[in-house]
Amino acid sequence: MERVSQKMSGLQLNLGPLKEPLGFIKVLQWIFSIFAFATCGGYSGHTSIKVRCLDAKNETLEAAFGYPFRLNTVVFKNLDTKLCNSTLPQTHLQGDFSSSAQFFVTFAVFVFLYCMGALVLYVGYLHLYRGAGKLPMIDFVITMVVALLWLISTSAWAKALTDIKISTGPEMVLDIGFCHLPQTPCQFGAVSSMGSLNVSVVFGFLNLILWAGNAWFVYKETNLHSSPEAPVPAPGGTPAPAGM
User: Fold this and answer.
1) Predicted model pTM
2) Percent of the chain at pLDDT above 70?
């Protein structure tokens, strides 16, 4: 019994599963999860407004922001409290979108780690994976849960990204108090490109498609998917002829 147990639990390197949908899709999931959290978590940018002073030089105020997008803690730099001969308060951007951004990035990192563990299991312990009924079932349940969480996290992040664009775009001028004063009229300056954030949303939905599609191939490894058994002949009966 000990020898059988050692044989079942020993490492048996086999790259064959990587050529099958079960392993090949897992590699894609691993790669796509990297792009998802890297394009979101590594972002930094800035936005600016232009203040037109009536009796002094014009000023450009900038605010730098980035992941995790707590915009309500971001202040405009170089804001002189005596700007345009007026006493101006410290001014922040509007909105806190850290919960959606952090949920998306943290979940993508966990998916990245899970894919690494699953690939080790497929490549090194496939005999154990297919020899025990519980492991494929656990893999199937996790696959379904991950697909659902990709839908939730990506949808929440896509909505947050839309709000971030509003809070850092031309409409932010409406939320800045001193811009409504007659002596300090403002206009929107510029905002950094958010192309990488758009890419993160795209990869989020691509991950959803990959995990939802891969659920079928994982399901085929479980005991729930079994080929129909041949009918058992009645006792004393003669087997049916194979052909005419």
Assistant:
1) 0.82
2) 83
